[in-house]
Specification:
By secondary structure, the protein is of the alpha+beta class. Helix content is 49%, strand content 14%. The chain folds into 2 domains: 95 residues, Arc Repressor Mutant, subunit A (Orthogonal Bundle), CATH 1.10.10; 195 residues, no CATH class.
């Protein structure tokens, strides 16, 4: 990628301001293409990068020939040119995701009933119905202050391990305490993660998280509101371990929290390589070992470079 292309890709990633709605649509489809994800017109509008628009504006731009050979329509879906086979892949993944959602709701609510858990949300591929049959169920969890590491340990012991014995792989790979609800990177990847997360339990905490991260609207200005309604059975659960929570709020619980935090941070630090995205503290456990965000960013930059005949910014 030349210096000019790299510069405009960097601007879109960190402070998106596409020149036209057509440029915004190309950026949106390029990002979705990284995940083999064709989009409907409504989905393009919701995730439109850096451009506020109503549904009519988006559809008009998609119907116009300005996008030329870069965008192709297949039924209700739009893809980058040459990527039409992804439509069938998306339909297959949607069927797999439909089978996974009842498990995600069941185990998400089980996590929410544990001590100190204030929010459980589904993230990753399943959040947008793009999960394959073997994919994990990624979970984002918010806990009470000063008990994040005990919350994680209890979650793994009482929910993750029993689920695994039934062939369901839960991955609680991102936990924050209530004190760190605004502690996010400000970039296009993180903005997508926030607007796509589907809260299973903890609506009040979810609303607070959204209110503390209004910066997201600079990247995805049309992605307001919860991304999808949940089935009727996904009611707000009440904690079933009030006694355990009271016990773990004692000095003994404080000692156990510090011991578990030190133990796990030491282990994660040994496991993490230099370029991993692992972040550990009293209020955060981000166990992203595979440099996923960085790889997505680099692939996105490469996609944008292919639009050398379009002025994106």
């Amino acid at each position: 990628m030349d210096e000019e292309s790299s510069g405009r890709a960097f601007r879109i990633w960190h402070d998106p301001a596409p020149r036209t709605i057509e440029a915004a649509i190309l950026c949106t489809l390029a990002y979705a293409d990284l995940f083999d994800y064709p989009m409907t017109s409504a989905e393009i509008r919701r995730h439109l990068v850096g451009w506020k628009a109503d549904p009519h504006d988006v559809q008009s731009a998609l119907d116009h020939d300005t996008l030329g050979h870069h965008v192709v329509r297949s039924g209700e879906y739009y893809t980058l040119s040459g990527r039409e086979p992804l439509v069938e892949i998306r339909l297959e993944r949607a069927r797999a995701a439909a089978a996974a959602w009842p498990w995600a709701i069941r185990y998400g609510q089980a996590i929410a009933r544990l001590p100190f858990i204030h929010l459980v949300a589904v993230t990753g591929a399943l959040a947008v119905d793009n999960a394959g049959p073997a994919d994990n169920i990624d979970c984002f969890i918010v806990t009470a202050p000063d008990r994040l590491w005990l919350s994680r340990a209890v979650t793994i012991q009482f929910v993750v391990k029993p689920a695994l014995r039934r062939g369901i792989t839960l991955c609680p790979n991102y936990l924050l305490s209530e004190l760190a609800l605004a502690d996010f990177d400000h970039d296009l990847f993180t903005a997508h993660e926030i607007v796509q997360m589907v809260p299973i339990a903890g609506q009040e905490t979810y609303r607070r998280l959204c209110s503390l991260n209004t910066w997201v609207s600079r990247y995805l200005p049309n992605a307001f509101g919860q991304p999808r309604p949940l089935p009727r059975q996904a009611r707000e659960p009440n904690a079933i371990f009030p006694l355990a929570e009271r016990i773990l709020r004692t000095p003994i619980g404080g000692w156990a929290e510090r011991w578990e935090m030190k133990r796990k941070i030491d282990r994660f630090t040994r496991r993490a390589h230099r370029n991993s995205e692992v972040l550990m503290s009293a209020d955060r456990c981000k166990a992203h070992f595979e440099r996923h965000a960085r790889l997505v960013r680099e692939a996105f930059f490469s996609r944008l470079a292919s639009f050398d005949d379009v002025q994106l910014t």
